[in-house]
Design goal:
With 282 residues, this protein is mainly α. The chain has a single domain, classed as Orthogonal Bundle (Farnesyl Diphosphate Synthase). It is 76% helix and 2% strand. The protein has 13 helices and two strands, in the order H-H-H-H-H-H-E-E-H-H-H-H-H-H-H. The chain has a two-stranded antiparallel sheet with strand order 1-2. Strand 1 and strand 2 form a beta hairpin. The protein is globular.
Length: 282
């Protein structure tokens, strides 16, 4: 479930349903949630297959990378299925929603394929290492916020205060839970001369940065509650999910088992939806 990226796809879907819960009090449209699930599954399975030739030999023997090598057929099957389902689900999407996919599609392609010309050859977005975490957080926050918002309204929905608050909070939250993955890879990144936040500031200070981002998240929740329309149940659920994530960040260490990171930090997206869903039922 984890190494195949199915768990991550479920978490991204839950984070999309979270947006719908905040905007409509429901878990949103089935087709919207489905397209996020299969888009995530396709992109991450494709990326895992494509990047294998670019990682160092000592990384290849890690369980998460060795698993890809031993289950390549499964990855190709998931890529094929997710492609077919994406094409099918696009037929249920209003034309206005297709515009939401353009920035995410461009980031997805740029993250996997070299599209940036430099004096040292063509580079991918992920090769600009100090921005890698931002690209991921931005793409996830954009898709999981604006797709359900535009589907139920119009493109102008993207400019509504309640939608912008969800997007900015999502960007902060997702940036924070992406940092532990750079902590996991800190030794490999140092060997390759890759500059990430943990390489620059150390693992402990990077956790502090993630905590600050989550405190900003809670501040925006409070601002939305006081000055706009966020109700007390939603504000409590979102704040609690951020505080739980602050605790989970203390387990972000490079020597952890590779399963710990996706379960705890990808799972934080699922946890936030669970808190919100339960609090809204109370």
């Amino acid at each position: 479930m984890v190494y195949s990226n199915i768990f991550l796809a479920f978490c991204a879907t839950a984070y999309t349903a979270k947006t719908a819960l905040l905007l409509t009090g429901t878990n949103g449209n089935w087709h919207v949630n489905s397209i996020v699930f299969f888009a995530t599954l396709f992109l991450y399975c494709f990326h895992r297959i494509n990047k294998r030739k670019l990682i160092s030999p000592n990384e290849l023997i890690e369980e998460r990378n060795d698993w890809v090598n031993n289950h390549k057929t499964l990855y190709l099957f998931l890529i094929g299925i997710s492609t077919l389902m994406l094409l099918e689900e696009l037929f249920f999407m209003p034309l206005r929603t297709w515009l939401v996919f353009i920035p995410v599609g461009a980031l997805g392609l740029g993250y996997t394929f070299p599209i940036i010309p430099t004096t040292k050859g063509w580079k991918r977005l992920r090769d600009i290492y100090w921005l890698k975490t931002f690209w991921i957080a931005f793409a996830f926050s954009w898709l999981t916020t604006f797709l359900p918002a535009v589907y139920r309204g119009s493109l102008s929905s993207m400019l509504k205060p309640e939608v912008l608050f969800i997007f900015i909070r999502g960007l902060l939250f997702l940036f924070a839970i992406c940092i532990p993955f750079d902590i996991r890879d800190i030794e490999f990144d140092k060997q390759k001369g890759v500059t990430t936040l943990p390489v620059l500031f150390g693992a402990k200070n990077s956790v502090y940065i993630a905590v600050i981002l989550l405190l900003l998240f809670i501040f925006l929740v409070g601002t939305d509650f006081v000055y706009f329309n966020l109700n007390i149940k939603a504000a409590s659920a979102l704040s609690l999910s951020a505080m739980v994530t602050v605790i989970l960040l203390q387990f972000a260490k490079a020597k952890r088992n590779s399963l710990v990171f996706p379960l705890l930090y990808d799972g934080a997206m699922l946890t936030q939806w669970i808190f919100l869903f339960v609090f809204m039922l109370l």
